Structures are given as C-alpha cells and as structure tokens.
C-alpha cells in the first residue's frame, strides 16, 4: 500500500512541477513579451512602418548584413525570444537562414549583454567561473564570445541559406 501511495504522490508532484513552471511563465515571461511587443510595435508606429521596413529591407539585401547586422540588432534590442520577430523584415526565402543566425546568437551575446538572454546566463557564468579561477579577465572572454558569435551567425546564415535554396530548387523541379 505504501508503494502505491508513494507512486501516486510522485505522479502528482510531476503535475505540480508543471503547474509551477506554467505559473512562472504566466507571471514572468508572458507579460514581459506582451509589454515588449507592445513597446516595439508602438515604436514602429511612431517611426513609421515604411521607414522601419525600408531600413530593415536595406539591411537584408546584402548577405553579410542580413546575417550579422539584423540578427545582432534584434538580439540586443529585443532579446530572446522576441528577436525572431525581425524575421518579418526578411524575404520568405531567407527566413530559415535568418532564424538560424538569430537563434545562434542568443548565447554568445550574454557576456556583454546579459539582458538579451537571461536563460543562457547560467552557461556563461559557469564558464566565467572557470576563467576567474584561472585568474584571467572576464572582459576578454565576453568580447571573444561576441566576436566569435558574429562570425558563427554569418557562416550559419550563409550555409543555411544555400542549403534551403538548393532544396527549394530541387522541390520545384519535382513539381
């Protein structure tokens, strides 16, 4: 009997943990996202959608800026996960590569701009603890993370774009 009661309590604890996670989202990340979305949309309305779209479109015309400037600005200003909304400014055929670039940059940015992705801060802080133990400066680590991150998102964006366009052409030939 005791085994059944323990199993039942463990089963209920699983749902309690899920409910606690859900509650933390409802009181934490969801209101933050709603406020950020409202603020960004308000700013876009104030500046003018045509102007914002024009600047973003110019940034996406060049393969270098499409996978460096746009995702970096999105991550710095909007953070994770709002940064993915900048994909609205990218042509449909470039959206998968933009997403790949943006999602790849949300970790390397945490050393210099921890607000951009608080969820990944624990990873950076773990590495930073090791660097501090060795007596090395954290500033160098943060700058290197950022620079390597920009190089990686550029490479990932280009490779993902090429793969997507290749697969799209193959699919069009079949139909």
From TrEMBL:
GO terms for biological process: phosphoenolpyruvate-dependent sugar phosphotransferase system. Pfam families: EII-GUT (PF03608). InterPro entries: PTS_IID_sorb. Its EC number is 2.7.1.191. One of its GO terms (cellular component) is membrane. The keyword Transferase applies. Keywords: Membrane, Transferase, Transmembrane, Transmembrane helix. The chain crosses the membrane at residues 22-47, 68-90, 145-165. One of its GO terms (molecular function) is transferase activity. NCBIfam families: EII-GUT. PANTHER family: PTS SYSTEM GLUCITOL/SORBITOL-SPECIFIC EIIC COMPONENT, PTS SYSTEM GLUCITOL_SORBITOL-SPECIFIC EIIC COMPONENT. This is PTS system, glucitol/sorbitol-specific, IIC component.
